[in-house]
Design goal:
It is built from 16 helices and twelve strands. It has about 400 residues and is α/β, with parallel strands linked by helices. It folds into two domains: about 260 residues, Aspartate Aminotransferase, domain 2 (3-Layer(aba) Sandwich); about 130 residues, Aspartate Aminotransferase, domain 1 (Alpha-Beta Complex). Helix 6 links the parallel strand 2 and strand 3. The protein is globular, with a radius of gyration of 22 Å. The structure holds pyridoxal-5'-phosphate (PLP).
């Protein structure tokens, strides 16, 4: 590469690998020379004199004014996540939902249409149907692995295609490159909610997506502490989103950004450990006589296995399975656990277990549940980092004795 040396002189991390970027990118040291990233808990910034205040406010001079606009700790996080996703720019938000809302408000207008996978986070569906609809933005939901449905779902007003892969809870795997081609042929933008894989396992921008959305609340934090979100992509789109966030205020808290920065440093190690534990648990469940079916793309029997192996570097930490029986049997397995936490959160070192039909997907109508494969005997496990033998024993207690 001809200008590699030049670029390296300008940016010592130019060309660095993900593990290095995850630990090094974005840090700006203060005059104190701190080694770890500083936490700037301040709502506003002081100016040297009236002229400087005027210049900062007018934008003539770059620099901090107020933490709804910029904060050094949040900026460090944004630069780091952008580097990991291979994005030109990124902006932090107060939650994953705030990232989705801000993207839609900033990039869509009344009359526009969203084409969305049917298997997205439940609240995303509520946001699109109940709230965006009020402002004249309509949404069509399609079966995520049926590309004929995707193609037929476009209208001349489709501006945004929205997808999660692998999906929750059945781990459907969607071909990002194929969907990006369909989307671009119709002049729309493809947004991928990369929450389940994180950039440690999947880089949707490299596969043609235009925007990455994250709930940083999940694996980026990794220990279930803070709410946050991210929008990443080309600067021209991220700037639009940033403009909305600055005006409307769903800003990332500097404290949360600091926690996420620390989370990113161990992200790949954790994602690989989550994936290892999940694969072993999926294989064990698959062989269990009281389990009807396991949904995990790491199993060769899963429909999305080959695609996931191509588009992801590991299969992720979330799996689901159907026990033999119905709701009573599923609840029995859940209630017999003593280690796993009965909670809807995921992406935590602590394993979580949930009954989707009566919790995360409880708002769906019976037809919607049937369509999405959310049966009464389905259990979702977001596999944490505890000892795998203990996790098997925790499920065996309820699976073995009905
Ligand atoms: C949790 C989640 C969200 C929403 O994120 P919050 O931080 O809870 O607002 C969006 N998408 C996916 C895939 C999620 O799991």
């Amino acid at each position: 590469m001809e200008n590699f040396d030049e670029q390296l002189a300008e940016d010592p991390l130019f060309g660095a690998a993900l593990d290095t970027l995850a630990i090094r990118v974005g840090q700006s040291r203060s005059h104190e020379g701190e080694h770890s990233e500083a936490l700037f808990l301040t709502s506003s910034y002081v100016f040297a004199n009236a002229q400087e205040a005027a210049d900062r406010f007018s934008g003539e001079q770059p620099g901090n004014v107020y933490s709804r606009y910029t904060n050094p700790t949040v900026r460090m996080f944004e630069e780091r996540i952008a580097a990991l996703e291979g994005a030109e720019s990124a902006v932090g938000t107060s939650s994953g939902m705030a990232a989705i809302l801000s993207t839609c408000i900033a990039l869509l207008k009344s009359g526009d249409h969203i084409l969305c996978s049917r298997s997205v986070f439940g609240t995303t569906t509520v946001l699109f149907t109940k709230y965006l609809q009020k402002f004249g933005v309509t949404t069509t939901f399609v079966n995520p692995t049926n590309y004929v449905e995707w193609e037929g779902g476009f209208t001349e007003n489709t501006k945004l295609v929205f997808v999660e892969t692998p999906s929750n809870p059945l781990c459907d795997v969607i071909d990002i490159q194929r969907l990006a081609d369909l989307t671009h042929a119709r002049g729309a933008l493809l947004a991928v909610d990369n929450c389940f894989c994180t950039p440690a396992l999947q880089k949707p921008l490299e596969l043609g997506a235009d925007l990455i959305i994250h709930s940083a609340t999940k694996y980026i934090d990794g220990q279930g502490r803070c709410l946050g979100g991210v929008v990443a992509g080309a600067k021209k789109y991220v700037d639009e989103v940033l403009g909305f966030i600055r005006s409307a205020g769903p800003t990332m808290s500097p404290f949360n950004a600091w926690v996420f920065l620390k989370g990113l440093e161990t992200l790949r190690l954790r994602m690989e450990a989550h994936s290892r534990n999940a694969l072993e648990l999926a294989q064990w469940l698959n062989a269990h006589p009281n389990v009807e079916k396991v949904f995990y793309a790491g199993l060769p029997s899963h429909l999305g296995h080959e695609l996931a192996a191509k588009q992801q570097s590991a299969f992720g930490g979330v799996l689901s399975f159907r026990v033999k029986g119905g709701r009573a049997e599923a609840w029995k397995v859940i209630d017999a656990t003593r280690i796993m936490s009965l909670t809807a959160n995921l992406g935590d070192t602590k394993t979580t277990i949930v009954h989707p039909a009566t919790t995360t997907h409880g708002r769906l109508s019976p037809e919607q549940k049937a369509d999405a494969g959310i049966t009464e005997n389905l259990i979702r496990v977001a596999v944490g980092l505890e000892d795998i033998g203990d996790l098997k024993a925790d499920l065996a207690r309820g699976l073995g004795n009905y």
